[in-house]
Amino acid sequence: MVPVADRAEWVDFAPSSSDAGQVGRVTSSRPLAAVPLGEAIPLPESPALVCDGGVVVQANLAAARLAGRWLPDSLIGFPLHRLLTGAGTDAELIGPEGHSVPVRVTRWIAPGTNLLVVFLVDVSDLCPTRRQALSTEPRCTEVESVASLRSWQTSTARWSRRRRDINEPWALECELREEQRRLAEAQRVARIGAWEWDPASGRLVWSDMMHDLYGTQSASGPTTYQFYLSLVHPDDRGWVDELWRQLVVDHLPVECEHRVLRPDGEMRTFRCHGAAITDPSGSLRLVGTAQDVTEQRTAETRVMRSSQRFADLVAIAPVGIGIFDDADRLVDANEALCKLLGYDLETLRGMSSEALTHPEERVERLRTMRAYPSAISESYTVPQRMLMRADGEPVYCELHVSASVQDDGQRFMLVVFSDVTERRRVAEALRYRATHDELTGLPNRTAIKDTLTELLASPAPDLAVLFCDIDNFKRVNDALGHDAGDEMLVALARWLCDGLPEGCTGGRLSGDVFVVICSDVAAQGGVSALVATVSALLRTAIPVRGQLIRVSAAIGVAVPDAVTDNAATGGAEDLLRFADAALFEAKRGGTGHFVMANAALMALADRQVELECELREALVRDELQLFYQPVVDPDGVVLSAEALLRWPHPERGMLSPDVFLPVAEQGGMMRELDRWVLRTALHEARDWVTQDGRPIAVAVNLSAQLPGEPGFVDTVATAIAESGLPWDRLVLELVETALVDLPDETRRAMGELVERGVRFAVDDFGTGYSSLARLKELPTQIVKLDRRFVSGVGIDPSDFAVARAVVDMVGAIGRTCVAEGVETTTQFQVLRGLGVDAYQGWLFSRPVSGPAFRSLLEFGRLSFACSGDTTQ
Ligand code: C2E
Ligand code: CA
Ligand code: CA
What's the 701 CA to ligand 2 centre distance in angstroms? Predict the structure, then answer.
């Protein structure tokens, strides 16, 4: 292979280039006058000569200067071959004194003459290094045609345009140089190397860029095809070799991409083009380019892998994923979405979001979500959409919609469907449970309040709330058991709801309190008529376990007008509260009563609320007090004392528990109050000493709620521990109704405390509905006979009989009997005669303050009525 540098020719840009022979044919014998001055060919400003028969007949100043002379005329008459050495496009312009300038030569026969115009381009700036470099580049036109790269095409196009303008020959040289420069730059920028290969010799000529790209040394001379192959990645080498060899055989252009292992160990990817070019002389040359596309491919691979990953993810995602086009049609969906909606992909494709939406939900179809201003957010969440499965079943989905743009600029929506049907079902069940009474299925307090709030929000609410308390329900419960009581409540609930007139809703608030909301009182003929209707409905007989139980109800009524006249807010909560207050009044009036919440009642209720707030504060500020009432043995010896709450109210004086306990109960403060009493009583009892050193126990009244609490044992244990009092000095009093049907958990807790030494007392025995026979079942060690029987024991034979029966029974089952409210010596003597173990009452002492009780203890034994209750 002839080295490119040796060819001394560059790119065939000129319209017609003369060869050495042509120049040789020019002889100096031709008269100079052959070109009359007037006919001088217009020359460009760049160096140019005109020759006739090989002799310079015209020159411009630039040519003279380039040739080291002052005037153009000094060149006239010079044989061209004396001025220019070399026959091709690259030559040396010989100046005087042997000085020479490297020039690029373009020759052109002026049309209509046989004059040769020679254009010279000074290429000394490219020499020697640049010249060398350029001359070793494979031919540009060939490279251009082989690698159809945009920049080259542009230059070629520009060049071919220029070719048509060849009448401006002086521009040609400039263009030539400019194009070459651009080409070189384009190669550098595009990192494209060029090569030429002589398959016969195996010699390969690489451009500098080629060496650069392959990380080899250009200075180390011409390379070989084998050397090139050795750089090709071993895995690619075989087919790459085959491909190039094929080119040699069939001359068809080749385009391929292969990896290269550079000598520095780096692996790069090259995009190669190759083509066979046949010279005008008929000789075959293989030329081509190589471009480093490693970064491009890496990026592409990354993108490809990432989109593959995305596709894989979508495919295996457990949530449905669908892509909707701008026309709201589903274009693609994953397996999960097909499964979720019960369609195969083919059917699903093309379906609109509207078609997927359940008819009931279509009003608010998926597409309407697209009305969301895109400026705010291109993605949004639809918390719940009811879609329709292929089988017509509804499926609830949470949608995450995200708008995006495809590569081609098309908008599309990516929608993630999460099935929330189960979540919704659970939520609905929870909501139902939260708003419905578990036993009867009727709306509960929460639901009633919500309904009332809704009704009250209407422009002119004409509603009434009726609280209905079933008379003597506790008696039923106690006599027949809780299960029968529950049965009755369920039956009654059904009876009530079935019988209520239209526009009325029934609910259950708690225990035996039902509620009726009427949304159109006028339609019922007014409040009184409504109450009469409901009252009549609840005056009935309900069959329970084979028995017909007669029921009736006390009713408390509230209407919003009354509330708004008297209360600041007039909301649902107030309405309920006033109905409650009215019910309270109705119950006091006896069975079957009804009371309408009125201004006075509401004022009272308001006062109650006020008192509740004050009590809360008093508790926080530790302003409550405990009084103690001694319990004595038949000889008047103090055995224990019952702690009784007092509230020294700043305005109303000392308040007794009867006044504020209902308020505390209403305000849900009983537990808190009990804990306070327990702590305080145990703490104060530490100072109690008798003269003979006998320990005095302290009895604490507990509300029904506290023992049922999970931390009950701990609460007591902590209070005991804090006081340092022995366990056996604590008595816990609970009313009879709080002790029947105890949950196992509570029974266990009580048992645990009893084991440690605590005693339990059943308070006010005889006021509940337990039969004597059930006394045995109560987990208590002490029975306190209620004051009601004690007061009549000396005068009423039936009270005496009850007292005797209780005392006998208590004795028989090994419990201690305490008689409460012993006021007279007669009562005391009768009871002592019956064998009562201990006595409590004004006869011995009224409840007294802590300090007073301590001084009372100093007496040791109490004689009758030795002390007075300062509060009574
Ligand atoms: P109770 O447990 O039956 O307490 C006895 C009540 O009878 C006390 O009323 C006491 O002053 C009163 N009493 C005592 N001897 C006589 C008497 O000979 N004749 C008359 N007529 N009454 C007598 P008090 O202190 O007003 O307590 C009323 C109720 O308040 C108590 O009834 C008890 O159920 C409740 N209570 C009092 N203190 C507390 C407490 O700290 N916690 C809880 N949960 N309830 C308490
Ligand atoms: Ca008590
Ligand atoms: Ca009592």
Answer: 5
